[in-house]
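Run log // design_07
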């Protein structure tokens, strides 16, 4: 037992250094990881086209570039509503705050009475200290200020995802060959399992997210809420984040509804309808579609969400589940890490 301690210490130090490197290299690694996951998502349609007689490189070009063309088209269609909403965000926040005050006004009146009684009893009559406000960039300025960096990252993801999909068979054989003849078959099996499980998860999650976005769009359109398509897109994207995505989407829809409607009826229909849709999706649709195909248990999903969200922010939260699936598969095929794979297993 004493002889194993140096190895355990070195492993712990390696993990700490690795986490630090992942956090510091986020601007470089995040586009690469997004391209890898996006390429994994498109392996299924690429292989399907190749099986129909289309050359593999042309299949990769059609699926990758066609999908990105569709994605950027949707972003362009939603850009103006999103920009208008961001420009009106301060006024919207003020109006929502006023609406909330109107709703809880009776409770606030009781609170003010209690505060006055307490102040009179303590004899405090001083004026509040002056405050200094520092001008900061608006939300719209901060978003548009990162347009150039976003465009560079987007181009990196587009081209890298194409090259990954187009060279996937050769790349997998080369990675297996690097491991040596004795481990080549095991490495190929691990890479194929990783691609298959991650592709299954990403495809099904994308289907669920798109369906959730369309239903949210239809619900908010029926209620008469402005920019219903924008909020449907938000619901579709945030659906990738387990647990927290639905809470954030519900909060945003509630705030937008309070800003858009003068009466509480449509607000309750919009928020309540989305809540019902999310309950049905989380307890019926997703378990029925994923079922045993989800290799992670709920605890590992939540811990992975916290870890990747802390590591890479919102992007890490969006990618938390597929990245944790990848870690779990790697652990399953490395002898020294199989216990960790068992902890993550569903």
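design_07 sequence
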């Amino acid at each position: 037992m004493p002889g194993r301690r140096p190895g355990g210490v070195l492993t712990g130090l390696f993990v700490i250094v690795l986490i630090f490197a992942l956090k510091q290299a986020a601007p470089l690694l995040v586009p690469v990881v997004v391209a890898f996951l996006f390429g994994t998502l498109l392996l299924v349609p690429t292989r399907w086209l190749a099986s129909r007689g289309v050359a593999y490189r042309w299949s990769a070009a059609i699926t990758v570039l066609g999908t990105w063309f569709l994605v950027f088209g949707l972003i362009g269609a939603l850009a103006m509503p999103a920009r208008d909403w961001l420009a009106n965000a301060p006024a919207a926040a003020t109006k929502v705050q006023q609406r909330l005050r109107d709703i809880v006004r009776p409770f606030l009146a009781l609170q003010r009475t209690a505060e006055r009684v307490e102040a009179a009893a303590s004899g405090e009559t001083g004026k509040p200290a002056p405050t200094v406000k520092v001008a900061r960039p608006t939300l719209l300025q901060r978003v548009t200020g990162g347009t150039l960096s976003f465009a560079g990252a987007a181009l990196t993801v587009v081209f890298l995802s194409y090259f990954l999909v187009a060279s996937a068979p050769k790349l997998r054989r080369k990675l297996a060959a690097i491991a040596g003849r004795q481990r080549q078959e095991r490495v190929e099996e691990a890479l194929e399992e990783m691609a298959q499980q991650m592709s299954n998860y990403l495809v099904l999650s994308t289907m669920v997210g798109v369906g959730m976005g369309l239903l949210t769009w239809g619900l908010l359109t029926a209620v008469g809420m402005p920019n219903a398509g924008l909020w449907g897109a938000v619901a579709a994207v945030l659906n990738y984040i387990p647990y927290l995505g639905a809470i954030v989407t519900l909060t945003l829809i509630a705030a937008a509804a309070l800003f858009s409607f003068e009466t509480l009826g449509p607000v309750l229909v919009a928020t309540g309808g989305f809540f019902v849709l999310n309950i049905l999706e989380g307890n019926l649709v997703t378990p029925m579609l994923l079922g045993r195909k989800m290799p992670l248990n709920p605890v590992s999903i939540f811990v992975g969400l916290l870890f990747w969200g802390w590591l890479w922010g919102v992007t890490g939260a969006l990618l938390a589940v597929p990245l944790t699936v990848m870690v779990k598969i790697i652990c399953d095929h490395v002898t020294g890490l199989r216990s960790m794979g068992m902890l993550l297993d569903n």
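The mean pLDDT is 76.
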